[in-house]
TrEMBL record, chains A, B:
Domain (FAD-binding PCMH-type): residue spans on this chain: 41-219
Co-factor(s): FAD
Pfam annotation, one family: FAD_binding_4
Keywords: FAD, Flavoprotein, Oxidoreductase
Name the UniProt record assigns to this protein: Glycolate oxidase
Taxonomic placement: Bacteria, Bacillati, Bacillota, Negativicutes, Selenomonadales
A GO term for molecular function: oxidoreductase activity
């Protein structure tokens, strides 16, 4: 498909809509707009518009649709699969200026926000109102629009679910510029196909999110974290299905290896409470009553010790818990800092298959002779497996990475897992999604895309 | 669009697929297959097939797609909006024989079921394993396939959410007979557009659900119910936003009027603990610790008394709670038994708008001079408002019903509510959905339908 190339008339139009100070071309475009956190494509859009309202975005989309110009929606660019990179140029619409919290409704427990509000600002704002927005992805400087677009998950999915579970309503600009509202503040909805759920996780390919109504919960009053050292990773991970089976529901269950802890210590310049063991589970429990939460974690501590844990370290002060979880939060950056280049595999598998998958990657790294590091959400089966380039020459790196990815995605499919647990498909994981899901599934995705965007102008080449 | 009429060759094909004893034509078709619980259309399909496997349904769909024959999916026919009625004849595929619970996986907390399993059987089965399937629609003899197709809600949505929140994976036969699997046992999923969420609530118009993987929770150990008498309905309902604002999360908050209680008493032949007041809130609290649950309900009891409640009756025995909730569960049947015909409006509004909506219906019933009864889920804003025919002549009934519905749906839209909270759109609520949502929204629904079913053979004329 031949798209229209941007010319001076198009720029004139964009300036007439958004104003001169919000439209950037050529050298004015900041380097960050050429990449995301994994894909350093060096591909620039022809023009960046920092939109300020739904109306601006609607007018630009209508124009782009008529003129057949590519539009790439952009939040903070913290994605890991290339979804917000403008590989084919065109217009990039950034939501960086649409960063207002519009309303806290404490009678309906909802928060209405613009798409450019940062996750960290939402968390802080609702906490200061004694409320709780549970989704907890590691990258707190992501925009909420980006979180919704990838259906971001995070650590607390074990107990609280993912971003999808906390989006009550959306305002969406369709590829042709029309604006629809879906959902709202309503708790239930059986009023036609759930367009809302289709837009969530669509990585900006079906519509442009311009407003979101989020569901909030009361802030839990008590929280404990448990750091549990194990002799090895297999023993640690194999304990998780036993915890689930015991009908305890921790808020989070993460697994980590000593190597990741050491890397994070170096990166942060801060000491972790313990690194004498090869492998750890890190758990959190929250609730409103001390006794209730204590009961829950004591039961789980007992299960861990029975399963071979060396010890159970309990933290109940906020400071201590923050230290531990900050280390966990720094893993990706620490691993990044430890190598020249990396790529990640974000598969999700049923919770009782995590151990098998991790064993497989350990064998694989020896077989292919490449460094593979992993950590992740043991409690929800979502793994983050990083293949590291270190000092490999380009061709060898590409060949080994391809081989490792082919094998890992095939293994995930074999275990009834899925291509992406929370980071999305973007441009980079498309071949793996196609392979894992097959033609019938992909044809349904493509027909949905064509139904929303028959001219394929909104974020083309992503997802399907 | 002209569909192919069923002839003897088609019947032959269906018999060759499913066997003679599972294919019914003409007089062999049971009367229940001509209607649902509200729509007594007297419209029979040309043939009913009681399918027994995904393969049978796939082969029939493929054939029907090629031949351009209408197919209507059918569960237990307990719907309230006409979605499972074969208004235009063709093939009805009933899931009544696909009623097997396939697997309880206690390491992943999932239950895999065929679509014809009854809700009551799921509840009983998981309870006997100390587990919990939270969605709690009043109609326990509905099939799970039907519950998923309408995204059924129920009483416990305040705390636990709706059916959508408990569907992890689906097996779906597409309109052309291809079979896809979406989701699975995985806790997270960012692997392309959420087809699963599109099928949920699609009322059997986008695909035929042949298997479902449900998410389970541990069974809460403690449960209390509070029956709270108020001087009038407005005072009762206006208390609900105060409860939500107090950051307590009851499991359920229902409102009811004396007239509904009296009708249910008569219907069940059983006494309700109290009917001295005009209006009541009925609340449940559950959890794992007695103290935790007691704290929660005491706080809420206090709020109710401050807001003008006469008293708070607390039930903690299972027997006592069952009596109360059985009465609540019998409201629809009781109201049905009290009149000659009725139709219902199942709108949902933001929780702090319930009182305003109910006041509006009270004015409306006087203005139009027709009996209107309502009860519903005060805690989640989902109302069930019944317009009763009593002894009105047919023409007058139609005219008054149309007027009442037009006004009520317009009011719901004005309050930022939605056409259906949990019963779906089917054939009956389509005009109201169109009016409420507008052309742009409906055109998106239609384009999704066309993407899945370009020949419009699967349950045509429903939803959009």
């Amino acid at each position: 498909m031949a798209y229209k190339k941007i010319d001076s008339k198009d720029i004139e139009f964009l300036v007439s809509v958004a104003g001169k100070d919000k439209v950037f071309v050529g050298d004015q475009i900041h380097e960050t707009y050429s990449r995301d956190e994994i894909v350093h494509a060096g591909k620039y859009p022809d023009v960046v518009v920092e939109a300020e309202s739904t109306e601006e975005i609607s007018r630009i989309m209508k124009y782009a649709y008529e003129q057949e110009i590519i539009v790439t929606p952009r939040g903070q660019g913290t994605g890991l699969a290339g979804a917000s990179v403008a590989f084919q140029g065109g217009i990039m619409i950034s939501t960086v200026r649409m960063n207002k919290i519009l309303e806290l409704d404490d009678e309906n427990l909802t928060l209405t926000v613009e798409p450019g509000v940062l996750l960290m600002d939402i968390i802080k704002f609702v906490q200061s109102n004694d409320l709780f927005y549970p989704p907890d992805p590691g990258e707190k400087s992501a925009s909420i629009g980006g979180n919704i677009s990838t259906n971001a998950g995070g650590m607390k999915a074990v107990k609280y679910g993912v971003t999808r579970d906390y989006v009550r309503g959306l305002e969406v600009v369709l590829p042709d510029g029309r604006v629809i509202e879906v959902g709202g503040k309503n708790v239930k909805n059986s009023s036609g196909y759930s367009i809302k759920d289709l837009i969530i996780g669509a990585e900006g390919t079906l519509g442009f999110i311009t407003k979101a109504i989020l569901k909030l919960l009361p802030l839990p009053k008590v929280s404990y974290s448990l750091l549990v050292p194990f002799p090895d990773l297999a023993t640690a991970i194999e304990t998780v299905p036993k915890i689930i089976k015991s009908k305890s529901i921790p808020t989070a269950i993460e697994f980590m290896e000593r190597s990741a802890i050491v890397a994070a210590e170096e990166f942060l310049g801060k000491k972790f409470p313990d690194k004498s063991s090869d492998a750890y589970l890190l758990l959190t429990f929250d609730g409103n009553k001390k006794e209730e939460v204590e009961d829950a974690y004591e039961k789980v501590a007992h299960i861990c010790l029975e399963a071979g844990a060396f010890d159970v370290f309990i933290s109940n002060t906020q400071e201590r818990q923050e230290t531990i979880w900050k280390t966990r939060g720094a893993f990706l950056e620490a691993i990044k800092a430890s190598t020249s280049e990396l790529d990640e595999c974000d598969v999700v598998v049923p919770r009782n298959k995590v151990a098998e998958f991790i064993k497989f990657t350990n064998v694989l790294q020896k077989e292919i002779d490449i460094r593979i590091q992993s950590f992740g959400h043991a409690g929800d089966g979502n793994l983050h497996v990083y293949v590291l380039r270190d000092d490999l020459p380009a061709a060898e790196w590409k060949a080994k990475l391809t081989k490792a990815f082919d094998r890992m995605y095939a293994k995930a499919a074999e275990l009834d897992g899925l291509t992406s647990g929370e980071h999305g498909i973007g441009s980079e994981k498309k071949p793996f999604l196609e392979k894992a899901m097959g033609e019938d599934y992909m044809s349904v995705l493509k027909s949905i895309k064509a139904a929303f965007d028959p001219k394929n102008i909104l974020n083309p080449g992503k997802v399907c």
